[in-house]
Amino acid sequence: MNRPFDKLSFTVNGQPAAVANKPGRRLSEVLREDLGLRGTKVGCDAGDCGACTVLLNGAPVCACLTTAARAANCDITTIEGLKPSATTDLQAAFLRHGAAQCGICTPGMLMAAAALLRDNPHPSRAQAEDALSGVLCRCTGYVKIIDAVCDAPPTDQPSLKPQAGQAIGARIERLDGIPKVLGTEVYGADHTTPYALEVRAIRSPHHAAKFIIGNTAAWAAQAPGTTHVFTAADIPGENRFGVIPAYADQPALAETRTRHRGEAIAIVVGDTTSLDMLNFDTFPVDWTPQDAPIDLSTKPTHPIHDSRPDNLLITGHVTCGDPNAALDQSAHIATGHIDTPYIEHAYIEPEAGIAWLDGDTLVIQACTQAPIMDRDDTARVLGLAPQKVRIIPAAAGGGFGSKLDVSLQPLIGLAALKTGKPARMIYTRSESMQSTTKRHPSSMTASIGTDATGKITAMRFDGDFNTGAYASWGPTVAIRVPVHASGPYKTPNYRADARAIHTNGPSSGAFRGFGVPQAAILQETLYDDLALACGQDRLAFRRLNALQDGDRSVCGQELHGVGIDDCLAALEPHWHRALHDAAKFNAANHTLKRGVGVASCWYGCGNTGLPNPSTMRIGISTDGQLCIHQGATDIGQGSNTVITQIAADALGLPVSQFHIIGPDTGLTPDCGKTSASRQTYVTGKAAELAGRALRQTILAKSNMANDARLTLDGTTLRVSDNTATREINLTALPITEHGYVLVAQETYDPPTQGLDANGQGIPYAVYGYGAQIAEVQVDTILGTVKVRHMTAAHDLGRVINPMLAEGQVEGGIAQGLGMALMEEYIPGRTENLHDYLIPTTGDMPTIRSIFIEKPDPEGPYGLKGLGEHVLIPTAPAILNAIRHASGARITRLPALPHRVLAAIKAAQ
Ligand code: FES
Ligand code: FES
């Protein structure tokens, strides 16, 4: 038996290794911190996510649940030791199939798959799903991961490398994929230095409380090393941040009161050994808990923010025509109410990062979706000029909207500024879930009317959105929902109101759709009611009302490139097949019932009626390197790849010659935030403009025509057509201000127009459209629901990379399925990944993606955004299918078995 501080010996990836044994240490910690093998990821430290999966004597284990002592004298294989074999080349298969998006789950997936393939080189899909069922992925919907595991034998097939001018539409592997499959990608928790201090936060255990902090120096003195405690009093700047500057209301460290559970009141900074010896339960603080409503059904007895009467943050409003009169005159009216809960983003990477000083510049490398916003918020809190803060986004292990808001950046920045030393912080799973934003819970009512032919006459929508303790993206949700609540349907008379209301729940922020998924659930449910009332097929009813080119939206905007009817038309054969299959099954079964549902989406890309620019720089250096300064954070959705594909075709050189720089606020121009499905469109358009501008510069320099071909060969740039070739010697050109000999920088800002008091205007320049069919099976005795198959038709305008687009659809469907059937975040109760359930491999249906290309007049190459859209129709399609199968009309999400059973009973 090993005594404390004995050495432990292992064989790791075929090499001997020894570390000091400290009782209870996790194998994951030893691998990452002692041996520097940071390819093994930690998502929960509780055996729930599988990100830490390694092989112990050949068997997959969770390294976070395995003590280092138990692993002594064992043979350990981590992602760093995974090599292609004669029978499998898993990592190449993951790249070939697009199985890694953000990549944080990829090492765990690869290790679990390696163990399977060693024993069973040709697994069935069911066997692969079973073997990988303990590893969670929040991005991919698992489809491409299972594809890759079932197609792992080495292949002679080279990766697709499109020629110049053929990048758009090519199914190329993601350009940033190799580090993800090798385990060398650097996420927020992966970068450190030997002298980095650790930062831990003291957080409120109450939903709301006043507090007084006691003698922290005496408490910290219990640790052997130098340990610092910093509170709000130590913050040198304005202790306030927020994604929308006019509403910035959140302190980096609470001052005298906390407004939600998990809010930080202090940070403790020191070396890890000293922090481990402190008893954080005895931190000197006196709490006075307050009444704390955390949902909309409880009326607060106190103002959560003194400046916001009735806890109302903001109301959004759109109206056109005369909805009340039109409803009165309608032949059919459907009215309904639906409540939805808090939903957690549940990315597998908890927030993490490191800060250090580079001269008088504070550098922060942390997970983020919005580096410039992080820079400005952090600078404000720390009293620095923005140019004295440099944000280097670490690879993001998922974001889905929540990593738009700063989390630990001001905290590690404060620690680095105060101590002068690098400071590192890694959130635990529960502090990530407690302290970061969620999807807005909603309480919505609507009425929709039709005439006798089934044409929509009017809609009224009224929604309260629980925006939690701080503003975050509450204003965006309240304004975006009324614009979208009609769905992609012609609605001549309309009024929609959405209110963002504070409670003492966690702040609600951005989560794939900004409130639109909630509103779509109600609208699409009522559309099924109306189709039934009109005696029409539910899909045909939607086609009858689908927006067409030249129609005006509820905001009065004339729309072009409208692809919703094309999506619904593409679904028709699948719809009729599915209805037939369900009817046949139901005729032979009494307790298991199958149903089919359909729902649509539309979604405006980018900010709502506000400036939203991106700037892109492309340069060629004197030594012939072609660089794209790509400031858009790629959180797994693929912007590094698709934006480069766009730039490549605009310039006329192959994608394979591009070197991607950034994002990094010190190196890349502002590409805005990765949100609202804007990067492929807005930054893509800036990339197109920059590519074209650089091409024009080259053509002018060589005096060649527009259709000339470019070839970059070392330090020679050749420009040729069918009659001549001109050569540009790059070494002979002067170097410009950005360090290149040939360079272009272009900015694009979508042409929108702010909304007036009635919500009329041009909120977005580009919309995307889609529709999905869900096929489900309901156990009418148990109330359980199995989604069997999804068919998703989405109008992308132009498909830049089909493989990455499919990955977005599959991942969005997984999140929509979770929203419909299982996900509900309850503060204080579901702050981990075993109480908060997200879909696993076993929950996923088969998925068919259908892409429509109806060009948008404004989008680059006609393209439209996709990321948010794909989640929106999933939950309403599933709910409509449950109702079709069983009669159960779900009015409160998620559709847990007891709610389904109650709804079946109510229907009977
Ligand atoms: S980190 Fe080990 S299972 Fe999640
Ligand atoms: S790719 Fe699996 S969690 Fe992101």
Structural overview:
With 908 residues, the protein is of the alpha+beta class. 26% of the residues lie in helices and 23% in strands. The chain is built from 21 helices and 31 strands. The strands form seven sheets. Strands 8-10-6-17-14-15-16 form a seven-stranded mixed sheet. It has a five-stranded mixed sheet with strand order 2-1-5-3-4, sandwiched between helices. The protein has a five-stranded mixed sheet with strand order 12-20-19-18-13. Helix 10 (371-382) packs across helix 11 (409-419). It is globular and about 80 Å long. It starts with 6 loop residues before the first strand and ends with a helix. The relative contact order is 0.11. The mean pLDDT is 96. The structure holds FE2/S2 (inorganic) cluster (2 copies). One FE2/S2 (inorganic) cluster binds next to loops.
